[in-house]
Every structure is written in C-alpha cells, then in structure tokens.
Amino acid sequence: MNVLYEVADKIATITLNRPEAANAQNHSLLDELDEAWMKAAADPEVVVIVLRAEGKHFSAGHDIRGTGPVPDKITLEMLYEVESRRYLEYSLRWRNVPKPSIAAVQGRCISGGLLLCWPCDLIVAADDALFSDPVVLMGIGGVEYHGHTWELGPRKAKEILFTGRPVTAGEAEQVGMVNSVVPRDQLDTEVTKLATHIAGMPPFGLRQAKRAVNQTLDVQGFYAAIQSVFDIHQTGHGNALSVSGYPVLARFDEMKSKIE
C-alpha cells in the first residue's frame, strides 16, 4: 500500500509509504491519500489528522516516471485535466477538511511535496527538513498549488523559485511556514504530543477556529489566487509543448541532477 491509515485516541494518522522512492507521488499514492483524508474527515471519532511519511524523506514530489507510460503526444488539455484534479483539487480539499491537521516533515520536501504539507493547518519539521520548489529549471513558474507567497512571503517565495535552492527548517520557522523545529529522532513523539493536546479540545470549537482562519485568508484572496496561478502554471507546460514537444523526462532528470 502506498498510504497507511490508522486511528487511535481521536487521532487519524495518514502515512506516506513509498520510502524506497522517497515518497514520490504517483497517481496511486495521491488517490489513496485523498481516500484516507476523506475517511478521516467522515469519521466522527477522529478529531485531529496527522500526515507523516516513512523513510528518510517526506516527499520527493511528483513521480513523473512512476505515473505510467508517457504518451507519444502530450497535450496541454491532458496535463490540465490530470493536474487540476490530482494536484490542485486534492490539495484544496485537504486544506478545507473541517478538522485540525498536522504535517510531520523530515528530509526533503520537494515541489509536489509542498502540495501535501501546505494544506495542513500546522507543520512540525525535523531539523533536517529542506523545502524546495526548483521547477523553474523545467521552465515552469512554480508547482501547481501556489502557496508560496502565502506561506513564505513574497520575497522569500521569489528567492526559492528564482534559485531553486531549499529553505531550511530553521528558515521556514522564521517566516512562519512551520510551527516548530524538533530533532529528527523526536519528530513523531512531538507531533503525537501536539495532536493529543489538540484532540482534547472541543471539536466544534476547533472546526469553527479553522473555518475562521481559512475564511479570513480566502477573503484576502487566497482561494482566487490559487486558482488563477494554477493557470499561470499551465502556461509553462504550454510553452514547453510549443517549443520542444515537452521532453518531460529529460527535463526532470536535468532538474534532479541540479538539486541532488
């Protein structure tokens, strides 16, 4: 199974379970992950949701090689359909689940990995965590769910996009993208302590508090910005298709070689 799911003491724990692939996201993993989120959302016994990952890394992003055979001809319509559903819609749905959620992040969290942790309400990072979005190297202006500006502030967002370099856990804490940084060997323990504390709060109050904060962000333009920047992302795909027929695997390998 690509995703593990368990419930104990009012806490649903969702675990990415492709450690041999650095928890890179093929379509099966994303579909299983969405199913787990929806299961936790519908379970009246669940008060808090924890998202974690097995292995050294939280997620190496989209598994381009692991999503199945690459068609001889890729069209923008094909890319738009796949990405709008599995990347944009899934992330927005997880963000709006009416229960508090906590992401536990260790190691690399690259591009598509941000689409998994940013929708969570709280992020606890191990001291070895590195957050990056180097897809400008592929001629694209940022990953599909553009939380960058909201999570990092405009200047830091531009820095990680323009350079491709990662943000450390400490830097992420300074700008408010993560709530706390803990030693790697204490990550699960500290997240469980936090989740247990929150699970003892009144569920209706938690739901209303989350709704208040999310709606405030939406009034400020979060939801509209996410939708509009997704279309900007798609122009990057369109340009690649028009220039070179989109040699996606070659560009993906080039990107990986520059960040490893």
UniProtKB/TrEMBL annotation:
SUPFAM superfamilies: ClpP/crotonase. Gene3D superfamilies: 2-enoyl-CoA Hydratase, Chain A, domain 1. CDD domains: crotonase-like. GO terms for molecular function: catalytic activity. It holds the Pfam family ECH_1. Belongs to the enoyl-CoA hydratase/isomerase family. This is Enoyl-CoA hydratase/carnithine racemase.
